[in-house]
Amino acid sequence: MAEGVRARAAAVEMLNAVLGQGRMLADLPEPDLPPPDRARALRLATQVLRRVEPADKALAAHLRKAPPLTVMNILRLAVVERALGAPGHGVVNAAVAIARSGRRTQHMAGLVNAVLRAVPEARWPACRNCRAGCASRWPMPMAARPSRSRPCRPQSHRWT
């Protein structure tokens, strides 16, 4: 597999265990990857788990019915990665490669490609009070929202 695809595939496996089997992320065995890829897989899985609901809302407009769990997790991972600033072409390519690598998901690779190209990159509204030109792509908690007394700061929009 290409660079970064193994980490993404491991993140999808983690998501399958957590969302499909109800296991805890901390209880899963560490994937057999080099340390940087292992850390990336865990970071990606954590980011997706934090943002499952907004990702599902973004995907719902482009899906008639829910695909199998593995395919849905591939789509969730790609949507979250794109929303957090990863280049769209690389994310879509990696998602399609992950779908093609699985025996049960290879027939869904076209769906993954079509849906991810249809989902707009900046789906979430931009911050209206921002002077720095950043865009908050995820709904902000009330305490972090800018107001007249507390203007927008670009670092307040970083979701890690």
Give an account of the 3D structure.
- This protein is mainly alpha-helical.
- The protein contains 6 helices and no strands.
- The longest helix has 17 residues, at 5-21.
Topology record:
Elements: H1 5-21, H2 35-50, H3 52-60, H4 69-83, H5 88-101, H6 109-118
Estimated share of beta-strand residues? under 5%
Spell the H/E element sequence.
HHHHHH
Q: Give the N-terminus to C-terminus distance in angstroms.
A: 26 Å
Structural class: mainly alpha
- Give the mean pLDDT: 82
Count the beta strands: 0
As a whole number of angstroms, the C-alpha radius of gyration is 16 Å
Q: Which stretches of 5+ consecutive residues score pLDDT under 50?
A: 123-140, 155-160
Shape descriptor = globular
Oligomeric description of these chains: single chain
Number of helices: 6
**Which sheet architecture does the biggest sheet show?**
none
Helix content: 40-55%
Provide tags for this entry.
160 residues, mainly alpha, 6 helices, globular, disordered C terminus
